[in-house]
Design goal:
The chain is built from 11 helices and 10 strands. By secondary structure, it is α/β, with parallel strands linked by helices. The protein has 2 domains: about 5-110, translation initiation factor eif-2b, domain 1 (Four Helix Bundle (Hemerythrin (Met), subunit A), Up-down Bundle); about 115-305, Rossmann fold. Strand 5 and strand 6 (about 205-210) form a beta hairpin. The radius of gyration is 20 Å and the shape is globular. It starts with 6 loop residues before the first helix and ends in an 11-residue tail after the last helix.
Length: about 325
């Protein structure tokens, strides 16, 4: 454990790693606020030591969820704001950058919701997978416009994030039908839009999202149900060309099966990937706070926002 990293940062890192904090926007906000906490609590009087502390905190946060690109994008935003030459100046730089980031994040989701709501019509039925606050923003905006929306919600094993989605949609007044994941194809004929979030989007428009998204997209295309991805620009992955170059997080096998049951089955190898990659040909539109885009043109927006590439500002010089 790096002693330079303060307890509040370690707590937040643990909550991100154990998925107590989940959802790309929530993870990004938590990471930004963790760096803010590190900066405000730092007692060093040396500017270089201060920056080293912030980089160490950022590395700890980054290593918790390698696939969720919103996390490193949040860290980049905050760390790149450090330009002062004194500790107090650097502290203010981090506080200001973290506050600006969180304010932009809040506005971005509301703006995205309005863009996504424009694709939903009164009387539409959507199908969801996993749990996405960007998806909620689209549905909430549509409901506020007076549209009647219904939802078929996949439970999303093994962690059952679909239950969170079902509860949140119910609270919005959206009628919900909860189904097991394997029943999705059966109900796609009743769906006007498949609406999912994203943890990362590659330059070619590939979508990295909760495992099962890719299979749902293939089935949706076969059934003629358009698939819309709701993702803030924070989810764009500036370090990739295709989704298959993204590091896919492998979760603990205990989320799937306990040791006793595993032994009864003869101890087979167990794999628990958290995400999969949906090729751009199965995606109809990517909805962001900057507007909606066909997946093949997302690289233009990515270059506008992030340039041709990025460095890792948490790396030690």
């Amino acid at each position: 454990m790096d002693e330079r990293v303060h307890a509040e940062v370690r707590r937040i890192a643990d909550e991100i790693g154990t998925m107590e904090i989940r959802g790309a926007a929530a993870i990004a906000e938590a990471a930004a606020r963790a760096l803010r906490s590190q900066a405000t609590d730092s007692e060093t009087t040396d500017p270089e030591a201060f920056k080293s502390e912030l980089r160490a905190a950022a590395r700890m946060l980054y290593e918790t969820r390698p696939t969720a690109v919103s996390l490193p994008n949040a860290l980049r935003y905050v760390l790149r704001g450090m330009s002062s030459t004194t500790v107090e100046g650097l502290r203010q730089d981090v506080v200001q950058s973290a506050d600006d980031f969180c304010a932009r994040l809040e506005r971005a989701q509301a703006d995205l919701g309005q863009v996504g709501a424009n694709r939903l019509r009164d009387g539409d039925t959507i199908m969801t997978h996993c749990h996405s606050t960007d998806v909620f923003a689209c549905v909430e905006a549509a409901v506020e416009q007076g549209k009647h929306i219904e939802a078929i919600v996949k439970e999303t094993r093994p962690r059952l994030q679909g239950h969170i989605t079902a509860e949140a949609l119910h609270e919005m007044g959206v009628p919900v039908t909860l189904i097991v994941d394997s029943a999705a194809r059966r109900y796609l004929n009743d769906v006007d839009h498949v609406l999912v979030g994203a943890d990362a989007i590659a330059a070619d428009g590939s979508v990295i999202n909760k495992i099962g998204t890719s299979g749902l997209a293939v089935n949706a295309r076969d059934r003629g149900a358009p698939i819309m991805v709701a993702a803030q620009t924070l989810k764009l992955h500036p370090g990739t060309m295709t989704g298959h170059t993204v590091d896919i997080e492998m979760r603990d096998t205990e989320e799937i099966i306990d040791d006793e049951t595993l032994a009864e089955l003869g101890n087979p190898t167990v794999k628990n990937p958290a995400f999969d990659v949906t090729p751009p040909r199965y995606v109809d539109a990517i909805v962001t706070e900057r507007g909606q885009f066909p997946p093949e043109s997302i690289v233009i927006l990515m270059r506008e926002l992030f340039g041709e590439g990025t460095t890792e500002p948490w790396a030690e010089p």
